[in-house]
């Protein structure tokens, strides 16, 4: 019983972070409650209905899975995206792109195939839709067995298939639905007939958390409206929003005469013009599928919607840039290399998985502050992640080693289940003992070079630096990032020299590794820090602005939104 309620709580924790589709949680909670009050054996031995072809019917199957998972002590779950889309034999778009994109972002991707296409870099040579009943059967197979977080749709070749999908989603609610209304391929070939427009408008959009049409698709959905400018894209986003989805992203990859790749995001209240650099390449086949899959993967990982969209956009831009010279096929539209990150490091055996974006909102704990507010380190870390912290560092200069390891293990569990790295301040032994993601060392702690030789190539190492020379040394010693500060005066660290915004800027300009700013940073000045606008500055680290506050979650949310606003307005590369 306790385990069941625990798992329910952690799901609700993620739900509140995503702020989408609460019905999923209601139904999961009810399923858990039903299991908790029923005899487990009566559920495990539910007789399969003949209509379901010998399988256990959906809802009972789901509750059975919960019982079994709880009975097994609960395994490690993964963020899970189900893509419902067409197969592209050339593997640049469709199901194949979706699986690669989700994999690259750390999400598991199951697939329901709606059509098989014969396709390559020249165009689409043939389309073979899968019968509706078999699409329904695939949906039931996946949704009745696996805890899918997010469903992402691609090519839905007929209204019948759209209706089948809607019925499945009503039977098996998920946390979020991402709809990419695929109609025409980059090569100009039709992938879904005009009759699907009514299916999207009348059935699927009302269930969607986000819809991601390109310019042609947005125009078709709006009866042929002409879309030539960003302002047209905003009007289109609003009109499509009126059709029912919670959010709309109109993609401007094909905006005529633009030197930027500009998309418009509309959440029903605010417009966000998301600008990216236009990559000059023939390899743009599958960008739309990739973008929607990345949004789905980020949502499954717990990101809020706007952040998911921004991360997806950055991923597509990086993939395009990395793949711009790749030669696959002889036609005009080549594919992307979704696994560019893996392939960039493929030559470095055991490459570590540090992502500089994780430095965005860096929470550094303080044992004294937690004592003062009467909360445990675990509760403090949990609240900071709930509020949006992207990396956590445990800093405790007083704890007994045994207590420190115990606390680190408990925090690691929370961090891992939320995809947030956990670093240990100074104590390389504690990091090794609990297999944390890495350490952060100061100038008088163990030298980074020694820490690297002890921890090996895969762990993350950060070093505190105040000068360009220290930053150069940290890089030479194998550091992954540096923390630069104190930027502003602070009471957290005695006798800490303040470098100011100018000192921070000088270090950022000199550093060959990503930088996080630290020292006296709070909601009042975080924006001014990011505004120094040096590409190596990836985020801010905060101590008292989170942990010396009554409500850590609220403060983290406030800081995160300030950072996101500043970075999107100033078009910073954080
Ligand atoms: N050449 C490019 N350089 C940079 N970003 C691009 C380029 N082409 C498309 N994008 C981006 O890729 C994403 C998919 O857009 P788009 O190509 O318009 O969709 P689709 O593949 O559905 O036609 C968008 O975020 C868009 O801005
Ligand atoms: C099976 C399938 N699904 C989607 C697309 C759209 O991708 P793109 O617009 O890049 O051609 C495609 N070409 N094939």
Automatic annotation (TrEMBL):
The keyword Transit peptide applies. InterPro entries: Aldolase_TIM, HMP/HMP-P_kinase_dom, PM/HMP-P_kinase-1, Ribokinase-like, ThiamineP_synth_sf, ThiamineP_synth_TenI, TMP_synthase. It catalyses: 4-methyl-5-(2-phosphooxyethyl)-thiazole + 4-amino-2-methyl-5-(diphosphooxymethyl)pyrimidine + H(+) = thiamine phosphate + diphosphate; 2-(2-carboxy-4-methylthiazol-5-yl)ethyl phosphate + 4-amino-2-methyl-5-(diphosphooxymethyl)pyrimidine + 2 H(+) = thiamine phosphate + CO2 + diphosphate; 4-amino-5-hydroxymethyl-2-methylpyrimidine + ATP = 4-amino-2-methyl-5-(phosphooxymethyl)pyrimidine + ADP + H(+); 2-[(2R,5Z)-2-carboxy-4-methylthiazol-5(2H)-ylidene]ethyl phosphate + 4-amino-2-methyl-5-(diphosphooxymethyl)pyrimidine + 2 H(+) = thiamine phosphate + CO2 + diphosphate. Residues 88-332 form the Pyridoxamine kinase/Phosphomethylpyrimidine kinase domain. Its cofactor is Mg(2+). Belongs to the thiamine-phosphate synthase family. HAMAP family: TMP_synthase. Essential for thiamine biosynthesis. Bifunctional enzyme that catalyzes the phosphorylation of hydroxymethylpyrimidine phosphate (HMP-P) to HMP-PP and condenses 4-methyl-5-(beta-hydroxyethyl)thiazole monophosphate (THZ-P) and 2-methyl-4-amino-5-hydroxymethyl pyrimidine pyrophosphate (HMP-PP) to form thiamine monophosphate (TMP). This is (wild Malaysian banana) hypothetical protein.
């Amino acid at each position: 019983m306790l385990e069941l309620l625990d798992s329910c709580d952690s799901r609700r924790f993620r739900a509140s972070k995503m702020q989408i589709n609460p019905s999923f949680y209601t139904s999961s909670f009810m399923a858990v409650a039903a299991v908790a009050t029923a005899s487990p054996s009566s559920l495990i031995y539910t007789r399969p209905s003949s209509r379901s072809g010998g399988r256990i019917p959906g809802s009972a199957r789901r509750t059975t899975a919960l019982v079994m998972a709880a009975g097994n002590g609960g395994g490690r779950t993964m963020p899970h995206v189900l893509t419902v889309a067409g197969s592209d034999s050339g593997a640049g778009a469709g199901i194949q792109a979706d699986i690669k994109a989700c994999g690259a972002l750390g999400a598991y991707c199951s697939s329901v195939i709606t059509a098989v296409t014969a396709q390559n870099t020249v165009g689409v040579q043939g389309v073979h839709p899968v019968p509706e009943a078999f699409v329904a059967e695939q949906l039931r197979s996946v949704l009745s067995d696996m805890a899918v977080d997010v469903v992402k749709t691609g090519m839905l070749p007929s209204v019948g298939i759209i209706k089948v999908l809607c019925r499945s989603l009503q039977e098996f609610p998920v946390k979020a639905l991402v709809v990419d209304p695929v109609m025409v391929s980059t090569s100009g070939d039709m992938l879904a007939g005009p009759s699907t427009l009514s299916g999207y408008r009348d059935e699927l959009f009302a269930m969607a958390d986000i819809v991601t049409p390109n310019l042609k698709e947005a125009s078709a959905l709006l009866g042929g409206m002409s879309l030539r400018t960003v302002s047209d894209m905003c009007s289109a986003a609003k009109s499509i929003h009126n059709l029912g989805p919670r959010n709309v992203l109109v993609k401007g990859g094909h905006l005529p005469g633009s030197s930027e790749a500009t998309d418009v995001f509309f959440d029903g209240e605010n417009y966000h013009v998301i600008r990216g650099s236009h990559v000059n390449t023939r390899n743009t086949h599958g960008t739309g599928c990739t973008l929607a899959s990345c949004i789905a993967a980020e949502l499954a990982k717990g990101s809020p919607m706007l952040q998911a969209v921004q991360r997806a956009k950055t991923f597509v831009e990086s993939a395009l840039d990395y793949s711009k010279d790749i030669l696959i096929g002889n036609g005009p539209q080549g594919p992307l290399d979704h696994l560019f990150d893996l392939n960039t490091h493929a030559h470095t055996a055991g490459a570590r998985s540090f992502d500089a974006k994780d430095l965005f909102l860096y929470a550094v704990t303080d044992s004294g502050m937690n004592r003062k507010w009467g909360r445990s380190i675990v509760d403090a870390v949990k609240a900071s992640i709930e509020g949006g912290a992207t990396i956590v560092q445990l800093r405790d200069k007083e704890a007994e080693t045994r207590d420190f390891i115990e606390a680190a293990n408990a925090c690691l569990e929370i961090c891992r289940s939320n995809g947030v790295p956990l670093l240990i301040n100074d104590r390389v032994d504690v990091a090794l003992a609990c297999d944390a993601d890495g350490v952060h060392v100061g100038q008088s702690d163990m030298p980074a070079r020694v820490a690297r030789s002890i921890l090996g190539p895969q762990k993350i190492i950060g070093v505190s630096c105040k000068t360009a020379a220290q930053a150069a040394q940290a890089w030479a010693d194998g550091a992954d990032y540096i923390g630069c500060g104190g930027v502003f005066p602070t009471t957290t660290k005695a006798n800490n020299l303040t470098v100011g915004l100018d000192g921070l800027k000088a270090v950022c300009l000199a550093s060959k590794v990503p930088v996080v700013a630290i020292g006296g940073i709070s909601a009042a000045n975080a924006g001014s820090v990011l505004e120094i606008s040096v590409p190596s500055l990836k985020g801010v680290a905060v101590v008292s602005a989170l942990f010396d506050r009554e409500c850590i979650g609220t403060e983290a949310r406030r800081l995160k939104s300030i950072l996101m606003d500043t970075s999107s307005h100033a078009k910073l590369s954080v």
